Amino acid sequence: MTDPRTDARPPETPPEIPAGAPAARPARTADRTAVRRALRMAVRRIVRFAVSLAVLLTASFAMIHLIPGDPVRASLGPAAPIELVQQRTAALGLDRPLPEQFVTYVGGVLTGDFGTSFLTGEPVSEVIAARLPNTLTLALLATAMALIVAVPLGMWAAVRTENGRNRGTEVTFGTVTGAAVAVPEFLYSIALVAVLAVGLGWFPPAGKDGPLTYVLPVLALSIGSIAMIARITRVETLRELGTDYVRLARAKRLPALRLHLRHVLPNTLTATLTMGGLLLTSLIAGSVLVEYVFAWPGLGQKIVESITQKDYPVAQGVILVYGAIVLVVNLVVDLVLGALDPTSEIKEVAA
Amino acid sequence: MRVDDNARPTGQSEAVPDEGGQARKAASRGVVWRSPSALIGGVLVAFMVVLAIAGPLIWGEAAERIDAGAILQGTSAEHPLGTDNLGRDLLARVLVAGRYSLALALAATLIGAVLGTVLGALPSVLPRRGARLVTGLVNALVAFPGLLLAMFTAVIAGLGARGAVLGIGVAIAPGFARLTQTLAASVAGADYVAAARMLGVPRRRILARHILPNIAEPLILTLAQSLGGALLGLAGMSFLGLGVQPPDFDWGRLLFDGFARIYVHPEVALGPAALVALAGIGFNLLGDTLARAAARSSAGRQESARTEPPRAEGEPDPDAVLEVRDLTVSFPGDSTPVRGLSLTMAPGEIVGLVGESGSGKSLTAAAIGGLVPYPGTVTYGRLRLGGADIAGMSGKELGTALAMVFQDPMASLNPALRVGGQLSEVAVVHQGMSRADARRRAVDRLGHVHLPDPAKQAGQHPHELSGGMRQRAVIAMGLMGEPRLIIADEPTTALDVTVQRQILKLLREVVEETGAALLFISHDIAVVGELCDRVVVMYAGRVVEELPADRLAAGAAHPYTRALIASLPDLDTDRSRPLAGIPGTQPAPAQVGVGCAFAARCALATERCRTERPELVVHGPHRRVACWEVTS
């Protein structure tokens, strides 16, 4: 209860005109200001991206030098003749001064030369080119699957449990999604292989050969994300359902479907898309293990192989590519959000 | 629409079954802990802890017993999960491996926590440039998938348990760093810490009483959640062959071995997989519960509202636009913010509903519009709009006959949709207009409320309009149908004074033109006196006085109304003295006693006021008042 003194008299200081103030100016100026602000934000994001990329490049270069001892010796094994080690070291340029090596490395990466595999002598760039599409397909399919299933599920749960009604649904939803989120992708993979592939024989257990082979990996990769996004969508939807404009839309007596799809859904999309972007990066990481389980010919399988076999140039190249994908996805999410959501620029300034 | 369901008179309790009795009130935290996810999480984590302590003691020997006669077997009575390549019992090994898995996870979490806390605290001690560098690094690392960080670290640190633990520690660190940064910034700068400091509270006490309790909870929460994450991460690393190496074994390593045989004996992989999954689920659910318990406010569970629906008396008034008899809105927990309110409005009449915040005026509006939020129960003897019972009206009828305007025009327009679209959908949905016609009407209506360039504003998003323009657009939205009643809930409070005037003028115009009645809700008695024909004053959920607006200044009878008017500053008010106010506060909806609710703050109150509630009775022409002092 507020004191009547603060409440029962005309406001002495009129509240500031809320942040829509530019619109009071002639419209064209307002448009231009908005465009300029959006551009400035885009430039700032791109600069941030470039800096992160530089850090990533340095880190992947440093990796091979941070390995204790001689990476070539470690890779070839203690029995390898000393001449071979020296020859390999020279071929890799590892005997040159560090700054020179760095320049060579960066130059190589920029021209698409990631070095050659210790083991097979194959150019790393070819390994990546052959495998990257498979990894991306898997991650994108899983992301699409997660969004398509999770957003309606989360909205449904929100509408059903609004204001604490249907506590049963709320509890079940919370418990099931909470448990599903907690199980990592590789355990889903193992369970799916054991039950659906080996046990029931419905799907091929491994490999990439025809549409049926996609089912289990995509499923394994998306179950956890479905649970995660459904939870977030529910919370976002609940928040939207409590806003004044939804209240007003209800006062207009709009049919439920229209109310939810037209008034609520677009406002939850910002959060959902952000999640979708972050999800894609986490799925790319999760795909490492899933690919390993399903012998999927992607980058993930290769990175595990290269690390266990101490094939450092391949590990270096693949980690660099993974990192770059993460950075690019984050950049794209930021830019798309900036373009989509007219208010995100305000948040950016505030942050 | 579901909103309608709970706005209808029910009389019955739609309550949650009473399970906890009185204990429930006392223990709102207990509610969190009694949920199934908390229970499952707690049991699972307890099981894991017991397993880690007792497992190796009980099954340690069985796990190492080599049996050359039983190598690589599948499920059998003797070996429920089969045996490994040396004939060792896999069930025993899985149960024993728990300790190592948990210990490694604990180590990785601690490494991550220490590393992250240091990294997060660095910016506050480093010079500005260094601080920015560290912050940037943390931000970049947070965006990076943990598994990749872990692999990167593991490559450098070498294959094996040490590399994996370091790797997972590094992967956990950025999250802690970000958390520490945020916490350090928010807590140290909080008003209560500054206030305590100014009061001369000793530093150690500030730390113990104000800072620690506020950052300990999030830190411990994150620790608990990270532990689960670390456990899963380590299992993943070992499963890939990058973690624990033989002869040591953790769950991940057992998975690695089992996975190689999955095509022959799936059960040898499923055993350890199930335990890892259970551990992950346990820690996650427990973490969720801890987070929820921490965030839980004192809000208790819902209880039933016990209100009998009052019966309508007399015949409905055929000429009234709005007729409300004995409207009551109650919420679980014996809270009744609106009590037996009655109100009749004639066409074209402007009625002001005034009262302090919490007097129930906005809920009255919500109840008339059928918008009372869920646990609330609305009962009434009669609720008729334009001669028809509201409960029997279709969405279409209500949507066009009733227009609502809310306080904050910024919040009442959907930011994602164009203004014109939000207007025209009323016509499309309820009046069956074509899109083009509806849009034309929307532009026409926007022009009607004096927007400078209606065609253009119809195509804009709400954030491109000023506050006053938005409120005009909301009013225009109400004019899309043929409103019989406009309910304006503090429509000018969020606007500045000049815009306020314009909106009031517009509302008056609209009423004159359409013949609709206007229920104008405000805490500002000055504005109400200026705009309205009649004023209804509410206090603690009840109408205490009703009078013509022009009698407000001179003829108010109820002590509360008089106090409201007296508290208005005018040109003669001595600015050097504090503004006159009404001492005391309005009782909360759950605490209204038997007598007159205003008695505690009333200078004229007698014993009778405190024990017996005055009814609203006629007091002169067009005037009613509820006060013993005035009427007796």
What does this structure look like?
Chain B: This is Dipeptide/oligopeptide/nickel ABC transporter permease/ATP-binding protein. Chain B: GO terms for molecular function: ATP binding; ATP hydrolysis activity. Chain B: Belongs to the binding-protein-dependent transport system permease family. Belongs to the ABC transporter superfamily. Chain B: Keywords: ATP-binding, Cell membrane, Membrane, Nucleotide-binding, Transmembrane, Transmembrane helix, Transport. Chain B: Residues 98-287 form the ABC transmembrane type-1 domain. The complex is a heterodimer of chains A (351) and B (632). With 351 residues, chain A is mostly helical. Helix content of chain A is 76%, strand content 0%. In chain A, helix 11 (256-294) packs parallel to helix 12. The two termini of chain A are 33 Å apart. Residues 1-27 and 344-351 of chain A have low confidence and may be disordered. In chain B, strand 5 and strand 6 (388-389) form a beta hairpin. Chain B is 52% helix and 11% strand. Chain B folds into 2 domains: 19-304, MetI-like fold (Orthogonal Bundle), CATH 1.10.3720.10; 322-625, 3-Layer(aba) Sandwich (Rossmann fold), CATH 3.40.50.300. The radius of gyration of chain B is 34 Å and the shape is elongated. The model of chain B is unreliable at 1-29 and 297-312 (pLDDT under 50). With 632 residues, chain B is α/β, with parallel strands linked by helices. Chain B contains 25 helices and 13 strands. Chains A and B meet through helix 1, helix 2, helix 7, helix 8 and helix 10 of A and helix 4, helix 6, helix 7, helix 10 and helix 12 of B.
